[in-house]
Structures are given as C-alpha cells and as structure tokens.
Amino acid sequence: MKSLKFALAGLTLAFSTLTLAADWAPGSTDWSKLPEIKVSKAGLYLTPQQAQDMKVTNPKGVGFFDIRTRAEAMYVGMASTVDALVPFVEHQEIMSDWDDKRTMYKLEPNQDFVAEIDRRMQALGLGKDAPVILICRSGDRSSKAADRLLAAGYGKVYSVVEGFEGDRASEGPKKGQRVVNGWRNADLPWSYKLDKAKMYFPR
Questions:
Q1: Which residue from 26, 88, 116, 168 could staple onto 67, CB 3.0 to 4.6 Å apart?
Q2: Strands 132-135 and 63-66
Q3: Rounded to whole angstroms, how far apart are CA atoms 55 and 63?
C-alpha cells in the first residue's frame, strides 16, 4: 500500500511537471516551467539579452560558445559576441544518411566537443570554474551540451533557452517559423560574415 502511494505521488509530480513545462511561454524567465528538452542538470539559464549582457560586462571572464553546426553558422548567421563555434553535433562529411524523425540529414555527436571547449577556454585564459554560456538554435542542444560540460568538470554552464533562431510560432500567418524569440529576433548583434578565427575545424 505504501509503495502504491509513493508511485501515485511520483505520477502526480511527473504530471504536474509536464503541465508546468507546457505552460512555459517563449520569452518567459520562469525557468521552473521550461519544457523538458530545454532543462539542464545545472539549471542555469539565460535569455539572449542576459547572455549578451553577461559577456559584454565581463568579456574576459566568460566563455561564450555557439554549439550549432558549421552549416547553421554559415547559412543562418552567428552572434557577434560569441568567442567560437564549437559544434555539439555535426552532419556527416558526406551527408548520405537521413533522419526520418527530424526530417533532415542525420546529425552525429562531435567527439571533439569537450576537448575543443577546453582548448578555447584555455586560449581565453579561463579555467573550468569560469562561467560558460552555450547557444544553439532554440535551446534544446545547449541544455544537453551543458550536461556534457558539467560531467567534464565545468561548474557554471549556462544555456541560452531561446537560442539563436528562437522557438516556432504556434499560430498566425508565420506558424511554424522561428519568429517568436531568440537572439536574432531580439535584435542583438549578429552577422552572416564569419570570423575564421572563431570557426571550428576538426583536428
């Protein structure tokens, strides 16, 4: 009977957590209501504006990394404030495999991710105790990448929950398009022109 009560309590908690996550409004800073896919183990989150402010206020004390693919940076643009592009996942060199679930070419984990973050942080003169900000397209990958860095010994890893492009509009004439929030939609500095020194090259 006691175990049944615990099980029911657990189900109630899980349901309430899902309900709260579904209530998160893009642009909100109520991190307790984030969708599960945007949640990191460290629980450290920023809006695009907060990320910009943190980096500008302390440019030499914070590492800021774009973790999207090289193609995304090339064709969608990149935030001007980031220190480097370090993909968390990447497309195959010859894109021959298709991901039916995501309706796109298959992505694979970048095995060099942590090592490249280490190299970039060292180049900035920063250790694993310094704050690290991660930005992806919409906050999904950055939460998983934050977990990976936490496991590698980094103590303060922030995820930009809206990402560079933002979330998709759920209604209106632009339904399905990433026009709701995010770095670009907040009119923060970004460019299609890329700095080679910030780009990722496999080693």
A1: 88
A2: parallel
A3: 8
Angle at 127 between CA 126 and CA 128, to 5 degrees: 130
Alpha-carbon gap, residue 168 to 179, rounded angstroms: 6
DSSP-assigned beta bridge partners for residue 99:
104
Stated pTM of the model: 0.83
DSSP H/E element including 51? helix 48-57
pLDDT single digits (tens) 97-149: 888 987 877 889 999 999 999 999 999 999 999 999 999 999 999 999 999 99
pLDDT beneath 50: ranges in the chain: 1-22
Which tokens go with 197? 């020194």
What three-state secondary structure class fits 34? Answer: coil
DSSP per-residue string spanning 161-175: TTTTT-PPBSSSTTB
- β-strand pairing of 45-46 with 157-160: parallel
